[in-house]
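re the bet — no i am not wrong, look at it urself. input seq straight from the record:
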Amino acid sequence: GIRDLVRSRGLGDVYKRQGINAEYGNLRLLEVDMPLVAPINVNIKFIITSKDVIHSFAIPALGIKMDAVPGRLNQVTVHIYKPGIYFGQCSELCGVNHAFMPIALHAVDFNTFENFLLK
């Protein structure tokens, strides 16, 4: 259903690209293979957890930072006013791959969001 689709997206594997120079559309250590997609101008509740160690789900431009703790459900509510792509990362030192845990959220209008859900 819709919940499973939304739940299955978010913290994706990062595109590990070689080189120092970033080109347009080639954001090293920021892009993910499955970004979150969220509608603008509605209240959104994120329910955050972890399955292995403590992580910290953070998207600074939206004012979100919440710990993801194994066995616990934490929640944070946000209202996104502007469409765009918002980047974040795990901001907890959670292990050797900590630097490779970006978060990308695509904020879109509600009609685009509905079409995304129907795909």
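see?? Residues 109 and 115 are 10 Å apart (CA to CA). told u. also The first strand starts at residue 36 and ends at 39. so pay up
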